[in-house]
Write a structure and sequence with these properties.
With 279 residues, the protein is α+β, with helices and mostly antiparallel strands. The chain is built from seven helices and twelve strands. The chain has a twelve-stranded mixed beta sheet with strand order 1-2-3-4-5-12-6-11-10-9-8-7, sandwiched between helices.
Amino acid sequence: MELSLSIASFPLDSETIHDMHGLLEMTEVDYSKPLFDSSWHLDDISGFAVLAYTEENELLGFAVAVDLIGLDSYEWSAFVHPEFRRMTIGSALEGGIAYGLEQRQAIEGLAAFIEDEVAKKFLASLGYQPDFKEIELEAEPLEVLDLPENLAVVPYDGEVEKLEKLMAAAFDEEVLPVVHYNIERTDREVFIMKREEELVASASLFEEEGGLWITAFAVDPSEQGKGYGKAFLLWCRHYASLQGKHRTVLEVETDNDALAVYRKSGFHPVHTVEYWNKP
């Protein structure tokens, strides 16, 4: 079978997106998130797709790479027609990804795949090594919420130094570009939790496919263990209800100590995405 590979930069045209969605319908597993399908049509996100078509113009596989926050650091994933996975199409797609990353002078290209044995064998065969894992968690929106009287959640108030200090303490200074990205994006809302005017927590929220996603969620380390994290997550679920969303979603690394807090706040695991790098 003759195949042709092509590379297309974002935004992808509607016909290509239709073909990609049609291919994904051949499996019951939801691969849309690691394949960044919500970004395919955007012109303000740096990304590209590698497409494998037959001579009859049938799409048998594709890979997508996205620079999520504009720092020349890409994540990529791939999907191949279930009946043609022994034809080295995946290897060809990875080669296209490597070429595209080189052309864009990317500083990093992490592979992101839903954790399963097929993905593990595929990436290991290409010389990739496991880096870390993230669990996607979701919860139903919460119709009623009563926050403690001394707590308030309000939109980000412009005090960037305080927000940077909190986020750097919760993570490290490498998170600061993400902080500014979330502030500057018009499709994201940054909220802060205050205890009597003192900043204790922050989160960025955005809508995707009818769900409310929580990202950059952080509680000041000096204030942890006081119930603020759970209270903020419950508030996010309530905000999702007010916005008419059907679910509240977040991702967290599997070794994160806050996993218990997420579960106590009503979140349950959906699937695990494993990230791989190539030395």
